[in-house]
Amino acid sequence: MQKHIQGLHHVTSMATDALRNNAFFTKALGLRRIKKTVNFDVPEVYHLYYGDEVGTPGSVLTYFPFGQMPKGTRGTGEVGITEFAVPPSALTFWKERLAAFKVSDLTETDFLGERRLEFTGPDGDSFALVETDAAGRTAWTGTDVPSDVGILGFHGARFRLRDAAPTGELLSFMGYQQDETAGNVIRYRIDKGNGADTVDLEEVPDADHAHQGAGSVHHIAFAVADRAAQLEVRKALLDTGYQVTPVIDRDYFWAIYFRTPGGVLFEIATNEPGFDRDEDTAHLGSALKLPERYRPYRNQIEHKLPVLAD
């Protein structure tokens, strides 16, 4: 199993308003909407994907905008902060830009030698932009964000846990190595990953448990190359005692899910077949793409969904 995990694949969160969500990530953050589809279980709810030009694994943030969903409450057992990577010296640009977009809770800090700008998304989501080496990654250039400061993909994520040790043991089993520690935060890093290489475990033993809602991360996905690697990972997890779902076809990747000791829902997702399987690269995210079982009901589904700006 240790040889197969390549870093993060995607992070999936929940939101209220689809139009506001789409505007924030495509306009304020300058990400590309790479797929416009629907929730597999609730087809009247969008599933929106944002990322780099082609939706490279390690760059993809996805959302379920559920409308009137109550906001989540922060606590333990969740992904507390989703972290994007930006090039060195980019934070000055981003601090000014996000202030102009009236983004809340802008806080510039330094953590483990990396400059970071933390901020809050439209539903109370917690994010950070972290200055780091580009590592061969390039930003989406289809917006007004200059390429030399644009978002490169994920840097990593920070979990908030009552007890970090069991999740740390799991990450080690997955191929991560314990790195630096600062206060109550332990960093784990995967060697030679896809750039989205870090997971930080923040231990807060006295905090209340989180309750999911709008602004909460629903699950976090880790990347493997293909279905063969995924099956090896699944067997290793099952042999260790984890309860793992069967392989599920998510149209743009295959997925398995399991719950971690700290309460966070993990997914293992394949890099194949990719987001260009039903749209060419130039038009990713333009048309509403439906899972096969919902295609006969396109007219009814489209009637219930708000129209999103390009």
Keywords:
8-stranded mixed beta sheet, 36% strand, 2,3-Dihydroxybiphenyl 1,2-Dioxygenase, domain 1, 310 residues, 16 strands
Your description of this structure?
The chain is α+β, with helices and mostly antiparallel strands. It has a single domain, classed as Roll (2,3-Dihydroxybiphenyl 1,2-Dioxygenase, domain 1). 16% of the residues lie in helices and 36% in strands. It is built from 5 helices and 16 strands. It has helices at 18-28, 91-100, 165-173, 227-240, 298-304, and strands at 8-15, 32-38, 46-51, 60-65, 78-86, 104-111, 114-120, 126-131, 153-161, 176-182, 185-190, 198-203, 217-224, 248-249, 253-259, 265-273. The model has no long low-confidence stretch (mean pLDDT 97).
Q: What is the terminal-to-terminal distance?
A: 40 Å
The shape, in one word, is globular
> What is the name of the CATH architecture?
Roll
Helix content: 10-25%
